[in-house]
Amino acid sequence: MRHFDLRGGVMHAEDVPIPDIAAAVGTPVYIYSTATIARHARVFREAVAATGDPLVAYAVKANPNQAVLAAVARAGLGADVVSGGELARARAAGIPADRIVFSGVGKTEAEMAFALDAGIYQFNLESLPEAEMLSAVAARMGVTAPAAFRVNPDVDAGTHAKISTGKSENKFGIPHRDALGAYARAAALPGLAMHGIAVHIGSQLTDLAPLERAFETVGALIAELRRAGHDIRIADLGGGLGVPYDPDQPLPPSPEAYGVMVARVTRGWNVRLVFEPGRMIVGNAGALVTRVIRVKEGVEAPFVIVDAGMNDLMRPSLYDAWHDIVAVRPSGAKVTANVVGPVCETGDTFATLRRIDQVAAGDLVAFMTAGAYAATMAGTYNSRPLTAEVMVSGDRWAVVRDRQPIEALIAADSVPHWLDEENA
Ligand code: LLP
C-alpha cells in the first residue's frame, strides 16, 4: 500500500500536491509518507504478533533519515544496525538501546565498545575471531555482551546475486555445520553470553520457501545447541521480505503469509523472535521526484533526460532494479522511451524501451518505491550534491534533509600548502 495517488489529475503524497513540494524545494527530491511508514510497521507487527512478544528491529540501512527513524520509533520498532554510525543515528532518533541488534561482518573494537556502553539487546556475530574480539572488549569493560552467532544456512534466496547472503560462498555468518563447534568455543570465552542465534539470507525475497528452509535449519540448530548445554533464548530471523516494484509482476508474499509461515515453523522453539525488516517498512513510503530536463531523439526510442541521476538512485544501475516511472500530471498518452539521468555513464539509465506516460521538458516524473536503499545509497559523483528529502503527513510537509549546497563539497576538500605556494 502506498499513499501516492492521483487526485484531480495530479499526484499527491498523502494530501500534498507533489508539484507544490517540487516548486518549493526544487528537484530532484525524495518524498516520504509518514502514514505509509506507520501502516507498514503496524502491518508487520500484527503479522508476527502470534509468535509471542517479538522484537521488530527496523533495518536502519534501508533509510537512516532521522525523520524516518523517528517515525519508526514512534511505531514501537527497534533497530537493526550495522555500524557505529547507524547505532548513533538510531539512538539519536530515540530508539531504546534494549531494542537494538548489531549485525555485520566487520564490527571494529571501537564500535563494539560503543554498543556495549549503550547497552544494546544483542550482537549478531559472524565469525569466531569476531567473538574473540567482542569477548576481549567486554572483559576489559567489565561487562557481559549478549550475543548470537549468525549462521549461514547455505540456501539460495532466489534474489539478485548482489543481495543474496545465505549461500555458503557468501561472506556472511558461520557455516551451519560449524555452529556447534563455534558455540562451544564462544561459550568458553569470558564476557560473552551466547543466548541467541541469527539468520538472514538476502533481500527482496519473492518466495517464502528459501526462508522456510533457512528457519528450519535454525530450528534444528536450536535443539542441537540446547542438547549441548547452550541456553538459547533468542532467534533473530533477519529481514528480506520483498515489496512490489513492478505492477506487472506477481505480488511478493504478504506480511500475513510470512507471519503464518514463521508461526508454523517456529512453533515449540520456546525463544523470543527478532525480525529485521527494512524494505518492507519504508520501500513504498518513498518516491523520488525529478524534472524532465529535455527529451532527446534516439535511434530506437527517445531519451527522456531527467535531473535525477544514478548518483541519486543507484539501484537500477547496480542491480538492474525496476522502479515504476510515472508522470506527476499524466495526460493519458503513452510512449516508449529510455529514461536516463545526466551523469556521464551509460549505466545512468533508469529504464530502457519502457512504456511510460508521455512527458515533455519541464514535466515532473516520479520514481516509485524509492523509500528503501535509495537516498541512503546516494553519492556525489559528477559533483552532484546530495538530494533534498521531504516528509509528508496528511496536508503537512517538512524538509527532513536540506539539499546539499555545492559549497559543502568544495569546503570539505583542502588544497595542500605546497600547491597554494606554487600558485602564489
Ligand atoms: N538484516 C540484515 C542482516 C541485512 O543485511 C539486511 C539487508 C536486512 C536485515 C534488511 O533486509 P530487507 O528487509 O530490507 O530486505 N541495497 C540493496 C539491498 C541490500 C540489503 C542489505 N541487507 C537494494 O537496494 O536492493
TrEMBL record:
Active site, UniProt feature: C344
InterPro entries: Ala_racemase/Decarboxylase_C, DAP_deCOOHase_LysA, De-COase2_N, De-COase2_pyr-phos_BS, Orn/DAP/Arg_de-COase, PLP-binding_barrel
Residue span(s) of domain Orn/DAP/Arg decarboxylase 2 N-terminal: 36-282
Swiss-Prot/TrEMBL cofactor(s): pyridoxal 5'-phosphate
Pathway(s) annotated for this protein in UniProt: Amino-acid biosynthesis; L-lysine biosynthesis via DAP pathway; L-lysine from DL-2,6-diaminopimelate: step 1/1
Residue(s) carrying N6-(pyridoxal phosphate)lysine: K61
Gene Ontology process terms (BP): lysine biosynthetic process via diaminopimelate
Keyword Amino-acid biosynthesis applies: yes
Family: Belongs to the Orn/Lys/Arg decarboxylase class-II family. LysA subfamily.
Protein name: Diaminopimelate decarboxylase
Native source species: Allosphingosinicella indica
